[in-house]
Amino acid sequence: MRQPKEKSRYFTFLLYEDSAPKNYLELLESLNIPMAISPWHDLDIKTEKLTPEEQKLRDQGQVIYKKKHRHAIYIAANPVTSDAVRRRLQRLFADYTNKPVVSSVQIIKTTVADTYAYLTHESKEAIRQKKHIYDSKDIVLLSNFDLVRYQVLDVEMKEDILNKILDVVYVNELENIIELRQYFAVCDDIEAMFGVSDIRQLNKIIRENTGIIRLYLDGNYQNHQKRIDNGDR
């Protein structure tokens, strides 16, 4: 029996300059699908599948670059197969060119955040491979693409962030949620301290763990009241 094809909401694909119509961004926007499009990758070094001529030039010491292309992240509204995404993109460009505009439509196997970092070669793997880093200012976001919305924290990451929040409450003797929010507001670097890039992610973890956070806040309040009763403010 044939196995059902894997479905997902999160995909990536390549788009090549030499086959894309001039209005490709407008066409992609018309799908009303959140997407993030990388800068043009024009300094990616080609090391595999060299033509005989390219191999000859490489042997002579020349650097061979890949075809100019862009990487894209595609966020489907509902789980679909990569074939479904490929067909939809092919239909989109069919009236404008008979060339294959997109290729390598694949389900994202890591995280959207890691794939987003790869758009400019700032992911850990790309940095390890010493790939050319592109300017993040040249990333194009379509249809309200919001990276934070697609970041999924695993159980271990959530536990680590919660422990850091509890440490903040304990060390700073915070007594209520307003004081905690004020702490976040003046924090110089949320990402460096808590490992998340947006206050909304912290708020979500707080909502999921209000019980234990309240215990810490109440504990600080009770300790403060005891010091007042003992004449020590």
From TrEMBL:
Lineage: Bacteria, Bacillati, Bacillota, Bacilli, Lactobacillales
One MF term in the entry's GO annotations: DNA topoisomerase activity
Pfam family, one: Rep_OBD
Gene3D superfamilies cross-referenced by the UniProt entry: 3.40.1310.30, Plasmid replication protein
Plasmid replication protein origin binding domain: residues covered: 4-147
Protein name: Replication protein
Annotated source species: Ligilactobacillus agilis
InterPro entries named among the record's database cross-references: Plasmid_rep_C_sf, Plasmid_rep_OBD
GO annotation, biological process: DNA replication
Any one annotated GO CC term: extrachromosomal circular DNA
